[in-house]
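Exercise 3.2. Students should predict the tertiary structure of the chain below and write it as structure tokens, then compare their answer with the key that follows.

Predict this chain's 3D structure.
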Amino acid sequence: MPAAAPAGAQLGQPASGKASGSRRQLFILIGIAAVVAAIAVVAAVRFLPLGGSQQQQNPPAEAKPPSVVTTIAMGVGPDGVAISPDGSRAWITDNNGDTIFTIDTATNTVINKLENVDPIGIAVTPDGKRLYVPNLGPNTVTVIDTASNAVSATIPVGDGPVRVMINSDGSLVYISNRDSGNVSVIDTGSNDVIETIDVADRPDRFRFTPDGSRLYVTSPETDQMSIIDPAANKLVTTFPLKGVPFTQVFNTDGTRTYITNLGGNTLSVLDVANNAVISTIPVGAGPLAVVATPDFSRLFVTNIDGGTVSVINVADSKVIATLDAGQRPSDAAITPDGKRLYLTNQTGSVTVIDTGVGG
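Answer key:
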């Protein structure tokens, strides 16, 4: 008969060798189970994409060489271009033909025409419901309802209105008045001019910084740049910029802006922090407009005197292609998905370019 355990045995101490062996086996089994579970967890995490999503994420599409898709005959002097927020429509102003054309971008055909005296620039509101069109001769701005393709208002502005920009929420419209040397600010709720801002002489093209805190205005004929504070609708500063600065586009964080130099056949890179040119990129003859793909991987520059478009790879600031784009290419706009560029040729056509990005 086995002896009883001593009275002084500690709590948890085995009473026999058989009990001690069973417990060791239990601990071993528990340990093995824990190791197996850990291996399973590591394996599961190993094959999950970053962010914890259980769906396989496709890598971004690689860029391909840009190319001309088609050329659309249109009017006698196409100038300004705007594209709808959903990318389904492109609107073209024909300054010499007193017409505004609507293009269906799915078919690249003209689906509407609207007579309008001396239209030049054009912009669409963020909701896609209205167009604002400066009319150079009459010194007015036409407001067009995009659903009906009808004029809903005509607004008197300064002398020689040429270009238009709309802020991100669609509440304010800015018009550059080249002959009166100022900018008209229109409230889209009332379609009234609520402010007139004096800037450098002969203002032309606009561009907002990415955060919307500043509006840059070029004055090509006087080699100057003006900066407006849109919150206060006041001029912040004006500074000289050689080379006939015409159009610009900001990088995604707003630290750099790329400006066409119509007189220098170059694109200047401006450091926004101190308004200093830090480099220049040679392009074609008579660079006029510059636009960027949404991912800011490529820039497209229209060369009005050379009849070409320079395509720049932003990563290394190199021209990677020069495309024939018709005679006297001027304004340009890229669809929201980044796949197509529409540019106007002042001799009567619109060229459509595959940007090579956007999938």
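Discussion points: The chain has two domains: 64-87+243-359, 116-240. The chain has one helix and 28 strands.
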